[in-house]
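Database export, one record per block. Field names are fixed; values are copied verbatim from the stored entry.
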Amino acid sequence: MSAVPHQFVVHTDRARIDGRFRVIVFGLGGLVVVLFGLAAALAASTGSALAMLPIAISALGLIVQICLHCYAWGARVAVETPLVLSPTGMQLCTHRGWVSVPWAAVASLSVRSVLGNRILTFHLIPGVDRTSPGVSSSLPAGQWKRLRRVGLQLGDVGITPGAADVAQAVRYYTSGRVGVSA
């Protein structure tokens, strides 16, 4: 990143998100088919439908996991521009709403790795909420309790440019005032 523009816009990389979730959803779906086949074979060989109950319950649990992953998949691709950085602050968009925060309300940016995936977390200064000066949001009031506790988070999978470029842009826009730890 040689020159940082007036706004630094992070876009959703739909192909990477689709590739990640497709493997998970179809893998779990294949496992459900195998489990139901195994349950049917067990019921046919024993002559008791009760014998297949534990396997069928496990398969139903996997169906719930598939539904949750499909929801997360749709939520990730629904937002075309999840993050916009500017000289005055940042705006983070999710499928639930958006939040705009001035740099004065951001304490730090941390980049941590969870299961090999990097997560960007913008930690807010204690006491910042949706009524603070310069802060605007469409998120429900209940979401702010979590935001104050864990910060504004964005996963590195499926965004372009990546976490390193976002960290460099934060350093540039805040002149180093917002600490960046990677």
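Remark 1: The mean pLDDT is 88.
Remark 2: The chain is about 45% helix and 25% strand.
End of record.
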